[in-house]
Design goal:
- The complex is a heterodimer of chains A (338) and B (315).
- Chain A has 338 residues and is of the alpha/beta class.
- Chain A contains ten helices and 13 strands.
- Helices cover 33% and strands 21% of the residues of chain A.
- In chain A, strand 3 and strand 4 form a beta hairpin.
- In chain A, helix 1 packs across helix 9, helix 6 crosses helix 7 and helix 7 runs parallel beside helix 8.
- The radius of gyration of chain A is 19 Å and the shape is globular.
- Chain B is built from nine helices and ten strands.
- The C terminus of chain B is likely disordered.
- By secondary structure, chain B is an alpha/beta fold.
- In chain B, a hairpin with a 4-residue loop joins strand 2 and strand 3.
- In chain B, 31% of the residues lie in helices and 16% in strands.
- A six-stranded parallel sheet of chain B has the order 4-1-5-10-9-6, with helices on both faces.
- The longest helix of chain B has 18 residues.
- The chains are: A alpha/beta (338), B alpha/beta (315).
């Protein structure tokens, strides 16, 4: 039988953007390394985000398969007019899921942090996919520890796109480690530049004392209303400028609940920000140009959206967030209109 | 000895509107806002199962109760940089429970609603009806007109309706001005006393500064206290999916909040939330209808309960 005609088989378990499976030891410098954080034990109300990594692996792999089908000639990004080619799967690795212990927050924290630290130690960019937003803290913690080893004395900036500040100190019954305290925990890391912390997309009623505290230490908040008024791309430019003052590393934390629930209902803490996927994409197109040292994308809860559109939108957002690593640019502007 | 030192998580404890204390009519005093559920479906086939609205609205409102708990040090509207006074809700927002009207014939149910709202208004409190559908409104309006001191002074109440269709019959007996969403936006068509009423389009509401918006509303109300009806159908269907006849076009939360905020600075004789069919899936499984309605109502409610404590300037 002609071997060339044999059907090819794919792994029954989808991987992020079709990345190759790998262990932390196999990470090469420059690699984009995905990992799952399937934990929602630290969310205080509607859960289901523990199924987020699986759903995003499926959707992102499907997205990547479609993009690679464009062939060696590349593809046109109709949003930007750029002529792009997707990198080969060898440049992308999927480390699998971090071990989660729903009854032991500390153990979960350490296992996630160990993975992201291992990626940074080997010169890769960790992309951690949740899970509820608490998991963004251990993902950032690992990055912080690795950077402290590599570059003692250097500090990094932080941008969080979110409907909420997540700057509480504690919640009754959930204590200090939950989906409403992750940004405060990040702000306590020894090498974060607190004055370079930026929030984008905050909507509705928040704790005014948190706002006061953030602005007192020099942090910047762009409300959803400001995104509407100033424009997403300009907000992202200003945020990037603020977060990168005196820092050459930036951590990006993406909570998909910044989107209005009319567009993306599959998340635990919905907001009515009227922010649309297009605006979120516009934010990420700019933010993806930042000097990223770590990315997390959190709060996708597939059980809350049986239509599947929430994870589809989230996969597209994730692709935009790491577009500089997923695509090589063949030419800047292509007139693709007939 | 209390069982615990910390405040309860928001889904714990007894169900009450924004976790307000449960009271009886005799406890009401001037300046209070009294929530009362009217778990009743209308007779129209389109009305849906709005009798589950009061429970759904109370459940979701528990989330906003945190604005006045130890969890939240100072509730701030991030868009407007407006901070609430910490104690303004204490002892002023209360919950009376539900009226027993679910199984009554329509005329008897109307009488019960009318008497209850008149009793609340007669004590100087403001009734906040958790509907139910629009059929509960005429009786509530009549009750407010018969009991509210401001209404008695003015000779009636004006009806300000956001969303919902026309309810004929008793509607026309009540004086007032009506706003409802149309494809072009909010329209007041001068029903009852409001001959030659004003017209507000969505784009106008979006662009008007708060002072101008308030002036236009004052002009439309002609000095009458307003009974405000927020029907979920004021919002376009794609924001919630939980109204039986929500329009395909219409305003979002931003425009409705602007209207409610302006109304919160005027004389209010009563407030009703109607049209929520809590049995509908909404957007997938997420019940955004009650959250939308309540978020909008907060602007009016906070206006009623007390002025802002001030602004924190943007850094």
């Amino acid at each position: 039988m002609d071997r060339q005609r044999l059907p090819t088989f794919e792994s029954p378990a989808a991987r992020f953007f079709g990345a190759r499976p790998a262990t932390p030891d196999e990470i090469q410098p420059g690699a984009l390394a995905f990992l799952g954080m399937p934990s929602d034990a630290t969310h205080s109300s509607r859960i289901g985000t523990r199924f987020g990594p699986r759903a995003l692996r499926h959707e992102s792999a499907r997205l990547a398969r479609g993009l690679r089908a464009c062939g060696p000639g590349g593809l046109i990004d109709t949003r930007t007019g750029k002529h792009l080619r997707m990198v080969t799967p060898e440049c992308l690795v999927d480390l699998g899921d971090a071990p989660i212990d729903p009854l032991d927050v500390q153990a979960t924290t350490e296992s996630i942090a160990a993975l992201t630290a291992a990626v940074v130690d080997r010169g890769g960019l960790p992309v951690a996919v949740g899970g509820d937003h608490y998991n963004g803290y251990p993902a950032c913690l690992g990055v912080s520890r690795a950077l402290a080893r590599q570059r003692p004395g250097e500090r990094f900036g932080y941008i969080q796109v979110d409907g909420h500040l997540d700057f509480g100190d504690r919640l009754p019954a959930w204590g200090m480690h939950n989906h409403a305290t992750n940004a405060r925990r990040v702000s306590e890391l020894p090498n974060i530049e607190r004055a370079n912390m930026v929030w984008i997309g905050i909507a509705g009623w928040v704790d005014g004392k948190d706002v006061e505290e953030i602005e007192a230490f020099g942090g910047r908040i762009f409300s959803a209303e400001e995104v509407h008024r100033i424009g997403a791309a300009e907000v992202a430019r200003q945020a990037l400028a603020h977060a990168c003052r005196g820092c050459d590393r930036l951590y990006l934390s993406l909570d998909i609940d910044a989107l209005d629930s009319g567009f993306l209902p599959g998340t635990g803490s919905v907001v009515h920000s009227e922010l649309a996927p297009r605006q979120y994409l516009d934010l990420l197109t700019v933010l993806s140009n930042g000097p990223l040292c770590g990315v997390d994308l959190v709060e996708v809860s597939p059980p809350l959206d049986p239509t599947g559109r929430s994870e589809r939108i989230a996969a597209r957002l994730l692709m935009e967030a790491v577009r500089q690593h997923l695509f090589e640019c063949l030419s800047d502007a292509v007139d693709f209109m007939p | 000895m209390p069982l615990r030192r910390d405040p309860l998580p928001r889904m714990a404890g007894h169900l009450a509107f924004m976790r307000a204390p449960r009271v009886v009519l005799a406890d009401l005093a001037p300046g209070m806002v009294a929530a009362l559920g009217v778990a009743r479906d209308g007779t129209g086939a389109w009305a849906g199962q709005t009798r589950f609205g009061p429970t759904a609205l109370r459940e979701t409102s528990a989330y906003f109760g945190s604005h006045f708990s130890a969890n939240m040090k100072a509730a701030m509207d991030i868009d407007r940089r407006r901070v609430l006074q910490g104690g303004m809700m204490t002892g002023r927002l209360v919950d009376l429970g539900d009226l027993a009207v679910e199984h009554l014939p329509a005329t008897q149910a109307q009488a019960v609603i009318r008497e209850a709202v008149a009793a609340v208004s007669g004590r100087g409190a403001t009734a906040l009806l958790l509907g139910g559908d629009l059929d509960i409104v005429p009786a509530a309006l009549q009750g407010a007109a018969a009991g509210a001191p401001a209404a008695l002074r003015a000779g009636g109440v004006a009806r300000v309706q956001l969303g919902g269709g026309v309810v004929e019959g008793e509607w026309s007996a009540a004086p007032g001005v009506r706003f409802h969403t149309a494809t072009a936006g909010c329209v007041s068509d001068g029903v009852g006393r409001g001959a030659g009423g004003d017209e507000l389009t969505i784009s106008w509401v979006r662009q008007a500064d708060p002072v101008r918006l308030r002036e236009r509303l004052q002009q439309a109300l002609q000095g009458w206290p307003a009974f405000v009806v927020l029907d979920l159908s004021v919002f376009a269907a794609h924001w919630h999916g939980m109204h039986a006849a929500a329009p395909l076009t219409g305003p979002g939360l931003r425009e409705v909040r602007r209207l409610m905020e302006a109304l919160g600075t005027l004389s209010i004789a009563g407030l009703a939330i109607t049209g929520l069919d809590a049995t509908r899936c909404g957007l997938s499984t997420v019940k955004t209808g009650q959250r939308l309605a309540l978020t909008a109502v907060l602007d009016l409610l906070y206006g009623l309960l007390g002025p802002d404590s001030g602004r924190i300037d943007v850094a």
